[in-house]
Amino acid sequence: MGFSLAALGRAKGVQLRRAETPVADKGVHVTVESLVALEAQARDFSFLRKQPVHRLLAGRHASQMRGRGLAFEELRNYLPGDDIRTIDWRVTARTGKPFVRVYDEEKDRPALIVVDQRLNMFFGSRLNMKSVTAAEAAALSAWRVMTLGDRVGGFIFNDNRIEELKPQRSRTAVIGLATAIARQNAKLNADSTELRGTEQLDRVLEAVANVAQHDHLVVIISDFEGHGPRTRDILLRLTVSNDVVAMLVYDPFMLELPQSGDIVVSGGSLQAELAMAHGKVRSGITDFARRHGEELLAWQQELGLPMLLVSTAEETAPQLRRTLGQLAWRQRRR
């Protein structure tokens, strides 16, 4: 479901040529202001379900992490097996029945938002470029993390640069992240002649793994173009001791190919003229998309890595609420 014209050029019957003029339209680029404005839409979703208090130490995040402290949660009747050190003797003496104090473990779970702004993300056939959808998903995620009281930082990368922002617990941190995303997003254009870093995805994930050695929330937003065995190995390292969510940004173009007519699509400095009536053209594109999608979705089972699909053809915020809601529902079923 990832897409780049360089990869598409390997499909049979597809002819590539240099782009003559860039396309400028809504959904092509983001601004700092537009990403900051998404704060109002960052609600009604969570990356991990909250846990009910059903044991002595029940944290606000559903994962096994070291706590930074304890916050008083409630008083309840003593149950066999409870630690006698948690008995509230004053309440017990006053009521004549044993009561224990239940605490909620406060967990420091810094979040790293990893945002792909490479040239392969500069493609879109409907509402947004993939780069725009990724930027919006990153901003929404960052605002939500901040609202929940956790630190937020991230890695924003293009074909030749990786920018790291240290996790902080403030609106300023989120605005800084939005600024870095908008800065790299603005450099994407159809006339770009920058050399593409073929191993950039693995480089940024390696950098993330060096920082997130344990107890982090890592949100990776990309089309995962250029993934391979090393990508899988790094993700495995990350998932062992962190909560990792992958958002696979895709354009529905390759899933809904027309049966006839010629289509010219543009990405970077190349254009591709697609003869949809040509069976080999359609099959080449769909086979590429199918293999790419199947490999990535297989990681969901193999690594226990949630792989959420985010389409460029729909508004980003409603998709996150829907897909993350489904993720929480699946977690409850486990």
Keywords for this structure?
alpha/beta; 334 residues; 2 domains; six-stranded mixed beta sheet; three-stranded antiparallel beta sheet; 35% helix
Share of β-strand residues: 15-25%
Which sequence of SSEs, written as H and E, runs from N to C?
A: HEHEHEEHEEHHEHEEEHEH
Structural class: alpha/beta
End-to-end distance: 28 Å
Low-confidence stretches are 9-14, 18-24, 49-69
Tally the helices: what do you get?
9
Write down the overall geometry: elongated
Rg for CA atoms: 23 Å
Number of domains: 2
What is the helical fraction, as a range of percent? 25-40%
- Average pLDDT reading: 78
In total, the number of strands is: 11
The profile of the biggest β sheet is:
6 strands, mixed
Q: Largest sheet, order of strands side by side?
A: 6-5-4-7-8-11
Explain this structure to me?
By secondary structure, this protein is α/β, with parallel strands linked by helices. The protein folds into two domains: 5-48 and 109-333, no CATH class; 67-107, no CATH class. The chain has nine helices and eleven strands. It has helices at 5-8, 32-36, 89-95, 130-147, 171-186, 200-211, 229-241, 279-302, 316-333, and strands at 15-18, 67-77, 99-107, 111-116, 152-157, 162-168, 217-222, 243-250, 262-267, 270-275, 307-311. The strands form three sheets. The protein has a six-stranded mixed sheet with strand order 6-5-4-7-8-11, sandwiched between helices. Strand 5 (152-157) and strand 6 (162-168) form a beta hairpin. The longest helix has 24 residues, at 279-302. The protein starts with a helix and ends with a helix. The relative contact order is 0.19.
